[in-house]
Specification:
This protein has 127 residues and is α+β, with helices and mostly antiparallel strands. The chain has a domain at 24-58. The protein contains four helices and two strands. It has a two-stranded antiparallel ribbon with strand order 1-2.
Length: 127
Amino acid sequence: MSDDLKKMGYRLRPRTVEPQQPGRIAFDERGNAIYAWNEDQLGLEGEDAERARRKALDHPGLAMVEDEPVADAPIRNNDKGLKLGYNPYESGLLPDKQQQVPKKKTDLRELSKWIEMKKRVQDSSDE
């Protein structure tokens, strides 16, 4: 069918329909960003205007939910908190430094004694 229309000289252009926006971002005389409503009714004050604004901005995929924290919920452990840094929104319980197994320290005095002994053995074998 599109080939027949092209032969007759018609061009087909796909239509793109953008969803109607209730308003747009504008700037006031001082340069501050404000939201300018497309309809005068949405810019009015009062309960009816508030309901109309909420209906205009309503999106079917979104919902307002206020989650109450569970009173008896245990505090989660944050094992990465000491390595990655403190995040107040995902802090959890930081592990104690005492619980971490400390790395065994190398005794450098023993190492220096061993190096000196090695040098003495080397010097005595050279003579």
